[in-house]
């Protein structure tokens, strides 16, 4: 007897072929595709009737620079997308790594799922990941004049500048950060078997 997860894995392997690495852990299926195959794979996930992932739930950027005690040996930036098939009642996680750490860029999927617009802008704003083909890639959460990308691991916790209202100038001004940087929460690396019981 095959489980629903196994059926999904088999359907993904058949539809995507050898160009995708498919794994299952903790009741979830993850598909890792190369940047060159990203758009084709996403189109297949949506249009293949056996998969029918018609809804994009989430898209986010990831910075792997300090992953696993800094032992990560691979591309620094990735884009992770979660898809839902209402027809089949299953979900999948798709991960694509940006091939260039200096200029992280992948294709935009706004032509496949219009809902990706906001999420790709958020990943650009917070991680600096560029989406080729996005029609309106600009900051969405930080200030217009903000410098840097605050979710990158090398971005300082307290930032570079702070803003305050200056009563003499009667306007908001920017100035260098005046607080001492500090680490509030100790870093915890969980064991390999975390959450498997």
TrEMBL record:
Cellular location(s): Cell membrane
Membrane topology recorded in Swiss-Prot or TrEMBL: Peripheral membrane protein
GO MF annotation terms: NADH dehydrogenase (quinone) (non-electrogenic) activity
EC annotation from Swiss-Prot or TrEMBL: 7.1.1.-
Residues of the NADH:ubiquinone oxidoreductase 30kDa subunit domain: 31-160
InterPro entries xref list: NADH_DH_suC (IPR010218), NADH_quin_OxRdtase_su_C/D-like (IPR037232), NADH_UbQ_OxRdtase_30kDa_su (IPR001268), NADH_UbQ_OxRdtase_CS (IPR020396)
Main enzyme class: translocase
Protein purpose: NDH-1 shuttles electrons from NADH, via FMN and iron-sulfur (Fe-S) centers, to quinones in the respiratory chain. The immediate electron acceptor for the enzyme in this species is believed to be ubiquinone. Couples the redox reaction to proton translocation (for every two electrons transferred, four hydrogen ions are translocated across the cytoplasmic membrane), and thus conserves the redox energy in a proton gradient.
Family classification: Belongs to the complex I 30 kDa subunit family.
Name of the molecule in the record: NADH-quinone oxidoreductase subunit C
Species this chain originates from: Massilia suwonensis
Organism placement in taxonomy: Bacteria, Pseudomonadati, Pseudomonadota, Betaproteobacteria, Burkholderiales
The gene coding this protein: nuoC
